[in-house]
Amino acid sequence: MKEIFIIKNSGEKDLFSFEKLKRSLKRSGATNENINKVVEGIKPQLYDGISTKKIYKKAFLLLKKSNRTCASKYSLKRALFKLGPTGYPFERLVGALLKHKGYKTKVGVILQGECVTHEIDVLAEKGGNSYAVECKFHLKSNFSNNVKIPLYINSRFIDIQKQWNGNPKNTTILKQGWLVTNTRFSLDAIKYSECIGLRLLSWDYPKNNGIEKNISDFGLYPITVLTTITKREKDQIIANDIILIKELMNAPEILNKIRISSDRISRILSELEHLI
Predict the structure, then answer these.
(1) pLDDT one-digit tens code per residue, 36-64
(2) Which residues are paired to 133 by β-bridges?
(3) Domain 221-275, second-level architecture
(4) Which partner for 172 in 130, 167, 218, 224 could form a disulfide, CB atoms 3.0-4.6 Å apart?
């Protein structure tokens, strides 16, 4: 095929790569047969100036026809944005990830600093150390967290750390601040954070250990990846403080509560089982 230039979410132009598309499909668990079907289906629909968003939608619908479970996993990045509009569901997801890594976690904690009080999104504890985790949830994928954000987060952490470690009643050391986002960090934000010891976690950072890999490794998919329920139903489930598919699996009665038919509940539970 001739070279085709696509428009990224940032507005930048880039050369379309079938290899990148294949890799993203492969990460969802799609078989070579599934991937080839998607690729062959997309080829005649490509044109210069097509957006990455349109390519994703076309790939998702084609994959959904052949493998609904892989389509759910393929939609993970977009599914994180659908956790909004508030940041609380994302904070719950981050807390669950840390819990599966062996941390004790609390979401939404008020801590006294040396100067003022601060609300910490997630307080994590492990091995005699505590960690203050700040979550930056964004509704748009083209948002990049610049250096101003870690500068601000680190100043809050220092204020809390002075008070915490100076309090003899605390049984752990407040060791480190974390900054977690569902988008990306600028190069300056990464450089500054590495310099001052602020730990970062984003969709694909650190390399091979970002949010995408952690969610996939632990099977902590948000309910927004499900293809068998509508957006309205997802919003209703989240309103009942159920964020993860594992939580929905343990509380299927919520599906009756929001008046989903028994036939559809069977299909939803089947999708949950395949994802877990």
Answers:
(1) 999 999 999 999 999 999 999 999 999 99
(2) 122, 178
(3) Orthogonal Bundle (1.10)
(4) 130
